[in-house]
Amino acid sequence: MSRASWIGRALGGALVARVLARAPAHNTSLSSPSFAPLVAPPRIPPTLLTPSLDHGTVEQPRPGAPSTDRLAAFMDRFCYYQGDHARQYKAVDKETGEISYGWARVGKRRPDECALTRDIAEAHLRGQITAGTYLLDDADRCRLLVLDHDDKRTLPELDPATGRRRVIEEDGLAMLQDCRRRLEEQGIACAVSESRRGGHLFVFLDEPVQARDARTLAMLALGTDEVERMHRGHEAFEIYPKQDRRNGQGGAAGTGSNIALPLGVHLKDGERHPFIDRHGETVAPTLASQIDYVASIERCRAQAVLHARPWLYEELDRATHPVRARTPERAPEPTNDERQPTRAARATGTAGRQGPSPIARWKDAYPLDVMLAQYGVHAPHSGSYQCPIAAYHADGRDSTPSMSVNLEMGSGVWFCHTANVGGDSLSLVQHMEGLSSPRDALAFAQERWPLPAMERDDRAHARG
What we know:
By secondary structure, this protein is an alpha+beta fold. It has helices spanning about 5-10, 15-20, 70-80, 105-110, 120-125, 170-185, 210-230, 285-295, 300-310, 310-320, 345, 360-365, 370-375, 425-435, 440-450, 455-464, and strands at about 85-90, 100-105, 130-135, 140-160, 165-170, 190-195, 200-210, 235-240, 260, 275, 385, 405, 415, 420-425. The protein contains 16 helices and 14 strands. The strands form 3 sheets. Strands 4, 5, 6, 7, 8 and 10 form a 6-stranded antiparallel beta sheet that branches. The chain has a 4-stranded antiparallel beta sheet with strand order 2-1-3-9. Strands 11-12-13-14 form a 4-stranded antiparallel beta sheet, with helices on both faces.
């Protein structure tokens, strides 16, 4: 639909010429009163969604206008971590003239100017810069969950023509609207905005939560069918925050991935992309009223939602651990003479011995569910539970169920997503008691939880 046609529908054909003639080329004043409250199209050009946060000034609105400091409201929703930010840039290749766009972390080159201040947020809303925010604070917590869909889906199978994974087009905005519907059915409010490709879904959290908890909440939005697709290797949605920790491997300083602040001007298409309702219509015609809309959305009580739905952690594990493609031909199993001793066998000095190792015998006698019970965790079935390893959690307590337990695999396996460690029943003992090796853990475990008498008699009879 042309620019004139949608304005004409809102104001009537007689007013179209006068409105277009008066529309400013690009109003950069936050306090400008010249702001036409037009009914917006599916995408709002920056000349019409003017960057005025109010009809008066930001701090002192005109009489009768909402008294809310809209810039503060915008930052409260989208700028939880303010220690750094990113900016979108446009680069031109000097030789070919090719234009490219990307994001750069300000703190990497200009650490003295990297804070995400009111001035930065204001410049973003004016369209002077295009800024991005980092979601995780210094304690690896966030207050915003974002789903991103770029109108494409990467499939697990390879394209025979290119040798690369197949990519198909998909209506990302429609998929995000489905996510909105699922959340609203669970009583969770959210906001959906358009983007240059697809859109974004925002869930505002009532308190800071760990990154993994925020991503777990996203499973409610995606639904079981999409989780199953992700498990099969499909890639369509991006979930922010992407990382559990700001810092990288080995403690290297980092910030995690940035997400573009909404309502700014995208450098590539020069447009602002508005928030839309469940019917795909723009929720409000002005930048000021768009911010008012976002500020009115109820925050999600994330911890209460997750506490009532612990199975969501299993969904996250399934979504983030896609199945591996099987090789066409499988190598034959090695014979007993060809088998190499396991790392645990080498660590405990049992390599080369016949029969089950001491570790295997002890784990058979004390599977994971038994040892979890010894440490106060009742885990009758696979699922997510409070991690008992105090050293890996703030104040010595796991505030959310961060331990995944699978009792169907061997004698049982566990994994703590906060500490990024896991293992079996013996490794649980090693981590709980702060022991340095499997050998030390086995010695401690055999003394505290010796093998049952029947097991000892069987071993003596085998030697005889």
